[in-house]
Amino acid sequence: MRARFVAFASGLVFGLGIIVSGMVDPAKVLAFLDIAGDWDPSLAFVMGGAIPVAAAGFMLAGRRQRPVCDGRFLEPSKTGIDARLVLGAVLFGAGWGLAGYCPAPALVASVSGQGGTLVFVAAMLAGMVVFDLYQRLLSGSRR
């Protein structure tokens, strides 16, 4: 129960943060990414404020034997840079630059019911399903 409450509270704070920062407004995100045009630097301040908060969180977590709501820390199994990581980053960046959304702000903005946002979220979810099916087919052919 405690873990669910912490997850809910964390998601709520994160969602409110991206609403307050303006990251759910694709026009604001696109203006931030348009450094050659009518550039809006305000999201740089959002990121600049998030970095010290995250650094403090990682520092505090590093001093703990285990997380507050789990038995052990879950660390990534892969730590290197490979083609799959680079391709994923390129696709993420291209999608963010074209649509002005990345997954979390799009999900938060989807509650507004705006058509463009709902289309983006539907396409994002469809892409996740296609990727999952591809991964299953790929892992089945390796056996």
TrEMBL record:
Sorted keywords for this record are: Membrane, Transmembrane, Transmembrane helix
Pfam families in the record: DUF6691
Highest taxon in the source lineage: Bacteria
**Transmembrane segment boundaries:** 42-62, 83-101, 113-134
Q: What is this protein called?
A: Transporter
